[in-house]
Design brief:
By secondary structure, this protein is mainly alpha-helical. The protein is built from two helices and no strands. It has helices at residues 3-17, 35-67. It has one domain.
Amino acid sequence: MAKDDLAVFKSVLNEAARGDLAARVDLSKIGEENRILGESINSTIGSMKEREEELESSKAFLDSTLESLPIGLIIYRADDPDKK
């Protein structure tokens, strides 16, 4: 693996780890022999972004549903040590 390619992969993965799920490997900047790895990194980050968007959508739906309830709601967690 070319040292420059490794630096590109490292940079993109560090960006993604910091929460930038728009980060992608620029496939034009890496060697042909490493394109499959670059594509896999891009695909993985894309999947992470999709999951994050799905979670945000689910949370918004749940928040909306809870706010529309006409009565209060008490949530009890069975694993809460303060409630035993």
